């Protein structure tokens, strides 16, 4: 079954296998004559990246790439990317890759026209209004994983390398003008990345659905996103060339990012400090901390997740949903505890202090206090 579609929610999405070949056309359509392709170090030499550069080059748009991007991109990567953008006279960005490449690419396009430091645009109140809109370069996003959904997001997560904290940088113009979702680009993803990114998409949908804020559209999108992950992530992991499963996972990733306009929660609040300090894979970290957070939130989400379980075809209400999550993690080989990712208990106090001020903490259905965060980290790291 071949899935092809054109969407304009939340931005123009060109969805379908092989549609990366349209890359140059969409760059030209948004006014780019000399785009800078931004991706991460691992992707830079790969065939899918070189093919994208070939497509741009053949259309007379050059083949300039910036790939000095860490797994958790920071302001040093950003400064280097902005310098390349300005020095090269570029007029747009092709943000290419997983969350790190997409987030940094969007930030480069944004910061190319700013004079204030990146931290002045953190997602706090109306800080985004400080930006000079005229200098923001257009963005075409091309995801190569199915997880973060950054290709349809209005923010980037940038790590402050001095404080080792992840900061959410927000501006409406972070939203790419065009997104090309080509599931063929995800076929070569290693199994562990398929699992980690897929569980990230599930975490986005789960937390958005559980968030107490009012946003019925996001609520519905989150619910259907969970169903797509439930039915297709095991398939994509079992057979990486299953293009139908890869397509549905790419949809689920975008849906998760659209849905979390409604809010995220403690899964992300715990995961962000771990990733910032230990450089773990964000999606895999989310998957590890998911069950303790579900137990913590149970009093507030039991009925809501029972309804979700019914829609997902899971018997047993909240307990059935919880058991499904445990079973999915086991099937996919997700570690049970953070200790298996190399995380010790020696920095719990520091991580808990970071978690409770993380922007995602405010969307948790139950208040994430310092005491609760410490207790959750202890549960997540090792078996008592």
Essential attributes:
single chain; 384 residues; alpha/beta; Rossmann fold; Dehydroquinate synthase-like, alpha domain; 2 domains; two-stranded antiparallel ribbon
The computed structural class is: alpha/beta
Q: So what's the CATH class of the largest domain?
A: Mainly Alpha
CATH homologous superfamily title of the largest domain: Dehydroquinate synthase-like - alpha domain
Query: How many separate structural domains?
Result: 2
Q: Note the run of SSEs as H and E.
A: EEHEHEHEHEEEEHHHHHHHH
Question: What is the strand tally?
Answer: 9
Low-confidence stretches: none
Cα end-to-end separation: 48 Å
* Cα-atom radius of gyration: 20 Å
- Look at the structure and give the mean pLDDT: 95
Number of helices: 12
* Strand order in the largest sheet: 1-2-9-6-5-3-4
> Which term fits the overall shape?
globular
The helical percent reads 40-55%
Your description of this structure?
The structure is a single chain. By secondary structure, the chain is of the alpha/beta class. It folds into 2 domains: 12-186, Rossmann fold (3-Layer(aba) Sandwich); 191-381, Dehydroquinate synthase-like, alpha domain. It has helices at residues 23-29, 47-58, 75-87, 99-111, 191-210, 216-238, 243-259, 266-278, 282-311, 317-332, 348-357, 370-381, and strands at 4-7, 12-16, 35-38, 64-66, 92-97, 139-143, 155-160, 165-170, 178-181. The protein has a 7-stranded mixed sheet, with helices on both faces. A two-stranded antiparallel ribbon has the order 7-8. Strand 3 (35-38), helix 2 (47-58) and strand 4 (64-66) form a beta-alpha-beta unit. Helix 6 runs antiparallel to helix 7 and helix 9 (282-311) runs antiparallel to helix 10 (317-332). It is globular and about 60 Å long. The termini are far apart. The mean pLDDT is 95. Its cofactor is Fe cation.
């Amino acid at each position: 079954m071949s899935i092809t579609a054109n969407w304009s929610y939340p931005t123009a999405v060109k969805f379908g296998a092989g549609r990366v070949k349209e890359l140059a056309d969409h760059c030209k359509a948004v006014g780019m004559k000399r785009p800078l392709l931004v991706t991460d170090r691992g992707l830079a030499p790969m065939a899918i990246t070189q093919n994208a550069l070939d497509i741009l080059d053949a259309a007379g748009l050059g083949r300039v790439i910036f790939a000095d991007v860490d797994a958790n991109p920071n302001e040093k990567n950003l400064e280097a990317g902005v310098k390349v953008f300005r020095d090269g006279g570029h007029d747009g960005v092709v943000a290419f890759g997983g969350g790190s490449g997409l987030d940094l690419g969007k930030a480069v396009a944004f910061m190319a026209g700013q004079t204030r430091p990146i931290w002045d645009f953190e997602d706090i109140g109306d800080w985004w209004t400080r930006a000079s809109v005229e200098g923001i370069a257009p963005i075409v996003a091309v995801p190569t994983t199915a997880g973060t959904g950054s290709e349809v997001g209005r923010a980037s997560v940038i790590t402050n390398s001095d404080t080792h904290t992840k900061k959410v940088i927000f501006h409406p113009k972070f939203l790419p003008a065009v997104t090309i979702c080509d599931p063929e680009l995800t076929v070569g993803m290693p199994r562990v990345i398929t699992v980690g990114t897929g569980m990230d998409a599930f975490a986005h949908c789960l937390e958005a659905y559980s968030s107490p804020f009012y946003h019925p559209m996001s609520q519905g999108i989150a619910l259907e996103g969970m169903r797509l992950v439930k039915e297709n992530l095991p398939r994509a992991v079992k057979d990486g060339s299953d293009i139908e499963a890869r397509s549905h996972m790419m949809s689920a990733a975008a849906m998760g990012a659209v849905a979390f306009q409604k809010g995220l929660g403690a899964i992300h609040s715990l995961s962000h400090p771990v990733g910032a300090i230990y450089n773990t894979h964000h999606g895999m970290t989310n998957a590890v901390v998911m069950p303790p957070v579900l137990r913590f939130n149970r009093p507030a989400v039991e009925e809501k997740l029972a309804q979700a379980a019914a829609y997902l075809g899971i018997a047993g209400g909240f307990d059935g949903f919880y058991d499904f999550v445990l079973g999915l993690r086991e099937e996919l080989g997700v570690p049970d505890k953070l200790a298996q990712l190399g995380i010790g208990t020696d920095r719990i106090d520091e991580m808990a202090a970071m978690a409770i001020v993380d922007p995602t903490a405010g969307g948790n259905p139950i208040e994430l206090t310092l005491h609760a965060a410490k207790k959750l980290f202890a549960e997540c790291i090792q078996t008592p």
